[in-house]
Specification:
Elements lengths: L5 H8 L5 H20 L8 H7 L7 H13 L4 H11 L9 H13 L3 H14 L6 H14 L2 H15 L6 H13 L3 H15 L3 H13 L3 H13 L6 H13 L3 H13 L6 H13 L3 H13 L6 H13 L3 H13 L6 H13 L4 H14 L6 H13 L3 H13 L6 H13 L3 H13 L6 H10 L3 H18 L11
Length: 493
Amino acid sequence: MLKKTAGDSYRLLAPALSSSSISRNRTEIERVTRIINDHPFPNHPIQPIFAKHIPLSSLSPDFVSEVLGRLFAAHSNGLKALEFFKYSLKTPKSSPTSDSFEKTLHILARMRYFDQAWALMAEMRNDYPNLLTVKSMSILLCKIAKFGSYEETLEAFARMEKKIFRKKFGVDEFNILLRAFCTEREMKEARSIFEKLHFRFNPDVKTMNILLLGFKEAGDITATELFYHEMVKRGFEPNSVTFGIRIDGFCKKRNFGEALRLFEEMDRRKLEATLQILTTLIHGAGVARNKIKARQLFDEIPERGLKPDCGAYNALMSGLMKCGDVSGAIEVMKEMEEGGIEPDSVTFHSMFIGMMKSKEFGFEGVCELYRKMKERSLVPKTPTVVMLMKLFCHNGEANLGLDLWRYMIEKGYCPHGHALDLLTTALCARRRGDDAFECSMQTVERGRCVSEPVFRMLETSLSSKDELEKLEELKTKMQKLNSFLPPPLTLLI
């Protein structure tokens, strides 16, 4: 499944902008993101900082959305994102966009700030009711399903209908409820809700595809196929989405032959072969270690009137990597760039994995690609950061680990806690407790706590009077921050 990133919406705007204006915009987004992440909230109020350094006149709807996208990708503290969104509401230029609202809601819900999320929904209900969409409903409901119980999720659904949206829900909202459970692979609960409520909501083919996707994501190919036949028996006509789900299920189970059979059946049924389905098959061919078929499927994309995107190139590169053809993957990356398609974080993640396993390229190849990534100012996703940090630190390259940390901080991001654990261990082992302390303090000041093992390592490494005073300051800030973080079992409804 291909996901839209914060950067995608930015690239859509790019053709209308000159390269210099694009560069200025990126620089300003990074500056504002750093201001938000660097501010020691909640120790000091953040709104006065906004007023001083971020003029309301500079906040366009697209700019606000881009900053919130960066905060989301950086796993920034949810309360800071909420403060920035509320500040943006003061601008006289225009109303907030649904995209900005949804990103803020997602950041809050992901950190389990459910009280604040409900309050934000209620505020939008009163002031900007047009922002309440099924997507915003899905964001909150999915997180409640993840962290809460079956009953709490149903109660949240009822609360949204009666108090937030204040309208009678139909099949679209019913599909969102089912998706919340299917996303968490809770198929017993999803099936129970379907049986209990389908008479009220009159399900459509999208409803059935959501349930089919849930069975597939749960990794049960037998249950997926059984439900497919039930779907047909109930009178629903399978579409391209239906077949795409089944194809992906067989690819993930390494049954590439069956996936191809379904693809051929799609052609016989005159169903549209989407770029996503072809990308899935290319990836499946790579998993099956069939790089010739992967390339053949990739070359079929333009023959079907489609244009390969970054996801399709990534699938081909990943397949070549799985077959041990790192040089071939590098050539595909060059081909992609020559075609005017910029590599994304997934591109680099796949290439890093391939080089790490390669005897020809190995650690040196990873380091060279890491430098290339930095030259492009591309910020890797959390799994890539953790993977690189582990590689650097385990290879005795604590300096490279620290360089990666500082690069992320410079770009306005706060690396994941596991990355800090790895870096602190490596630094303290080399008697560089001051550097480890600096990274830990940066984490806390960005609204995220450090783990108990990290703090214990700092206590062991820092022993002078001045250092102990700094540790006490860090501990005090952590305690204050903890008072603002949601408890382990927070009340959802």
